[in-house]
Amino acid sequence: MAELLAPPHYLPPRLSQEMNLIRKMGQCSRSDLHRLMACRKNTIGQDVSTLLELGLIRESSLHTLPRGRPSVPLEIDTQSRHVLGVAIVPGSVSCGRYNLLGQPLDSPTMVTIKDPSKLLPVCKKIVKQMTNSQTVITGLSIPGMMDQEQIKILSSSAWPDGQQVSLKPLARQADDKLIVDNLTNALGTRWLLEHSDEPHHDHLLILLSDGMLGATLLINGHPIRGCITCSNELGHTRMPVPTPRCYCGHQGCLERIFSSA
């Protein structure tokens, strides 16, 4: 099952785990959380109060029980808060608002950009326009290799000259509530959300588009992100075929073979 991700300074791991349980079950009572989390009832009560105050969950209608107090189901709040989903690909930036179940709230904003040096400034401008007090977090997907700890792009087809690009200015624009991941890993997480009701299996997902070729492994409900730079870089598997120089610095990459440029 794909998990709701959040920077450690925004949502403590236990609260994130509780949110995932509520999302997975659809509705979940405080008693359910107490049983599944093996935490004290007072701890669960405090956690639920925090999540309610943040607008991340809400109370649903009462469930009448044969005996005892009525049960108050908890569910993910799909109306109060939202996340921004941002994608940078070669030649364009897109951004949309999504509720906390990953469902789109409006049509994404998309801007075509021919000059790679303008990708990040335009992205910052869009994020600034679409961020408000109800924005929980911003998720950014980019093809290529990145250093998530340093919030830096090491190499990407979006910047074909091979330069490294710092994303810290964008993180500051998003109030440091920014998650960055490889495009195919992000698509893998989306796939898991959209197929959450299906039997649990491991999957290999492959993305093939003009100038982009990537893959992600989904093991035990999680994308395998690999080392600091990347994982499953299918697009940079090299063949003995003459091609234009890839942004990774080599020739013969599958990504170049599948590119019309």
Indicate the topology.
Layout: H1 13-25, H2 30-37, H3 41-53, E1 57-59, E2 74-76, E3 82-89, E4 92-98, E5 109-112, H4 119-130, E6 135-142, E7 145-147, E8 152-155, E9 165-166, H5 168-173, E10 178-182, H6 183-194, E11 203-209, E12 212-219, E13 222-223, H7 254-257
Your description of this structure?
This protein has 261 residues and is an alpha+beta fold. It has 3 domains: 13-76, Arc Repressor Mutant, subunit A; 82-187, 2-Layer Sandwich (Nucleotidyltransferase, domain 5), CATH 3.30.420.40; 193-257, ATPase, nucleotide binding domain (Nucleotidyltransferase, domain 5, 2-Layer Sandwich), CATH 3.30.420. 26% of the residues lie in helices and 25% in strands. The strands form 4 sheets. It has a 5-stranded mixed β-sheet with strand order 5-4-3-6-10. The chain has a 3-stranded antiparallel β-sheet with strand order 7-8-9, with no helix packed on it. Strands 11-12-13 form a 3-stranded antiparallel β-sheet. A hairpin with a 2-residue loop joins strand 11 (203-209) and strand 12. The radius of gyration is 21 Å and the shape is elongated.
